[in-house]
Design brief:
The chain has 138 residues and is mainly α. Helix content is 69%, strand content 0%. The radius of gyration is 13 Å and the shape is globular.
C-alpha cells in the first residue's frame, strides 16, 4: 500500500491534516514494504517501528504512546536519529519535504498515531496495518 493511501486512512482516525498524515503514511508504508525492521513485508510495521525507537533510546516515549497515560513528546532530531537514513530520505521524498521537515512532522504525529492504533494499551496482534487502521475507525 502506498504511503498516500495510508495517509488517507490515518486522516479520519487521527483527525489531523493531510500533510502530517501523508508523512506518517509514507513512513508506515516504507516500513511495511521493507518488512518493517525485521518483520515480513506486508505485515504490521508498528511493532518494528517501536523496536527501532526503543533501540534508539526512546523506549520511555514509545511506551507512553502505547500505554493509557499521557504521551511523552519527542522532537524531530530524536526521530531523525532513530530512523534509518534511507527510510527518512524516502519518506521526505514521497511527501515533498526535507528530511528534517519529515522528522519534525513525524515527531508531532507519531505519539497520537501510536496511541490511537494501540487501544487499551497493547499492540494489536496480527493483521496488516491497513486492517488495523480500518478496525480502529469502526
Amino acid at each position: 500500500m502506498a504511503g498516500n493511501d495510508l495517509g488517507s486512512l490515518l486522516g479520519p482516525l487521527l483527525g489531523g491534516d493531510g500533510g502530517r498524515n501523508g508523512v506518517l503514511g509514507s513512513l508506515l508504508g516504507a516500513l511495511a514494504g521493507s518488512g518493517g525492521a525485521g518483520g515480513k513485508a506486508g505485515q504490521n510495521p508498528l511493532g518494528g517501528l517501536l523496536d527501532m525507537l526503543t533501540r534508539s533510546g526512546l523506549a520511555e516515549q514509545a511506551q507512553s504512546w502505547i500505554g493509557t497515560g499521557e504521551n511523552k513528546p519527542v522532537d524531530g532530531t530524536q526521530i531523525a536519529q532513530a530512523l534509518p537514513d534511507e527510510t527518512l530520505q524516502k519518506v521526505a521524498r514521497e511527501a515533498g519535504v526535507t528530511p528534517q521537515q519529515a522528522a519534525d512532522e513525524l515527531a508531532q504525529s507519531l505519539p497520537q498515531a501510536v496511541d490511537r492504533l494501540t487501544p487499551g494499551g497493547a499492540l494489536p496482534e496480527g493483521g496488516s496495518l491497513e486492517e488495523i487502521i480500518r478496525a480502529q475507525r469502526l
